[in-house]
Model the fold of this input.
Amino acid sequence: MPRQYKYLYGPVPSRRLGRSLGIDIVPLKVCTLDCVYCQLGRSSEKTTRRREYVPIDAVIEELAEKISNGLDADFITIAGSGEPTLNSGLGKLLKAASDITDIPLTVLTNGTLFYREDVRADCAQADVVMPSLDAGDEPTFRKINRPHRDISIEKLVSGLCALREEFAGRIWLEVFLVDGMNTDTGQIAEIKGLIRICYCNIYNLAHLTITSNCPGIRHNIRQLLLGVVNDKITNNGVRPQGNKRVSIGISFPAIGQKDRPYRMLRMRHAAAASAQGYSGSNNN
Ligand code: SF4
Done:
């Protein structure tokens, strides 16, 4: 019988990553944010404290076994049930993974801890970092992302700028548009302005994905794309170089498709809970 892994899930099909093996290194909904659109429910622990939430040596042992058994995946993605950069063993995991496999490594993160040098140093071993930016001002950031009190939009943006300066891999930015919360013209302009600040040179912003669960806001998306892409690539004469192409993804995934990795996570947590003899959810 195949082994049930505690920290690995998949590979699962991902719209951006193809077949992606997920690695979950924080407990369910331990996060710096509590986003209104989070598919895993309310955050059980909103924190900025870094520690080894799950034992990294055990994660590495599972990954090494999975790879030695023949792993067919396009990416290995460190993500999962909360904010992965909260785990202080992230750098050790990425280093170990890059020693045992050539499969590209991705960190799927909300980006809120990149103002910290240790978090940026940990992520240096990744091939791709996928942060989020859903708001252009503090009140909207608080409304959509409901951050820990120590996190602000200013810290988030300063961290993204520092990452841009230091990170040698690719940065794939995701903007999640929530109908009625960050979709009016003023909001779009604010988000666009911050993307310009973070990625004024666009030399390692390789992909911008704009996601929404509401197909009715295509006009705003068009505005956002025109503002970011045309101004910076065409009007200002900044051109993609070599494989550092900037590509734009607009995603309106069918709910079933988008929800699939989360469904797997929820099922895994439910199985673990029932094995431990309780059935409650961590959600508030
Ligand atoms: S950052 Fe991700 S895990 Fe955390 S609350 Fe937002 S959507 Fe959920």
Summary: Helices lie at 56-68, 90-100, 117-123, 138-145, 153-166, 185-198, 218-235, 255-275. The domain at 8-254 is CATH 3.20.20.70 (TIM Barrel). Residues 31, 33-35, 38, 40, 43, 82-83, 110 surround iron/sulfur cluster (CB under 6 Å).
